Amino acid sequence: MEILRTENIIKKYGDHYALNGVSMNINEGSVYGLIGPNGAGKTTLIRILTQILLPDSGSVFYCGETLNESHAQYFGYMPEERGLYKKMKVGEQSMYLARLRGLSQSEAKKELQMWFEKFEIMPWWNKKVEELSKGMQQKVQFINTVVHKPRVLVLDEPFSGFDPINVNLIKNEISNMRKDDVTIIYSTHNMASVEELCNSISLIYNGKEVLSGEVSSIRNRYKKNIFEIICSGKTSVSLPTGFDVISNTFDSSLNQSTLQIALSKEGTANEVLSFFIHNHQIIGCKEILPTISEIFVEQVKNSNSLLPLFK
Predict the structure, then answer these.
(1) Residues 6+ apart with CB under 8 A from 246
(2) CB 307 within 8 A of CB 294
(3) Is-contact 45 204, C-beta < 8 A?
(4) What are the tens digits of pLDDT across the range 170-206?
(5) Is 303 left (phi over 0), alpha (psi -120 to 50) or beta?
(6) Contact 238/251 with Cβ under 8 angstroms?
(7) CB within 8 A of 163, min separation 6: which ones?
(8) Which listed residue, 9, 56, 174, 182, has the most CB atoms within 10 A of its CB?
(9) Could you report the per-residue pLDDT of 111-153, keeping only the tens digit for each?
């Protein structure tokens, strides 16, 4: 079921198009990635979705209705730039923000205590924000974003400043929320976690949508008929026309060879296997699909920039 839709969103600053005709559909319960380099327009789009900014033209719809102020209660937004008041005590500030979100005093205290205990930061309740590490502040900001149980959770570079343990903590919470049909919009210029977290994406470059769709469909759409074969022992092969060996590496510790085979035409793993199965002991075979990062770079390589951020 569709929860958010944008139609031809345009936002300009002077002569510069921050967004130029962006249209997308986001389904309820999905983890939707907004992907692109710094300056692509992701944050501008997020600020329009959360009603911090208005578009110059175009429309945004929430559950089929034109987005308006009454819908703000259903959104939670954690910006990349952290916004905690450093001189306030942690618990006092979190209570204040939860009350702004419409929770009663008792509801706010109950929900916040649950989250603080879950994230193991209850001892910091009466500490000033400035006394917390960056990672601790990140945890507090995340809690403040989700305490009112939003239907749409917008996360802009949520893992910045987190160590691997706390990254996994937030990933687990994202997974739990998705099970409850919370829609998560995840904005990042780092694509390493996109394929792990997101089921759909929009790739934005220079304010325009370059690609959109389900991650699995996009990767399959741009596949190049490359297969990986793992054989026992050191393997030397001579393949017929239409089959090229891209690489052939031998691991002496495992006594196995790993080959990448490219088909010049569309083919299947069975066709590749048929040339190996009679003469080699096959350990494994799989098709190599391009990563989202590789696809994005390929799509924009003829533009003004070669996107060094995506190397």
Answers:
(1) 226, 260, 261, 262
(2) no
(3) yes
(4) 999 999 999 999 999 999 877 778 888 999 999 998 8
(5) beta
(6) no
(7) 135
(8) 9
(9) 999 999 999 999 999 999 999 988 889 899 999 999 999 999 9
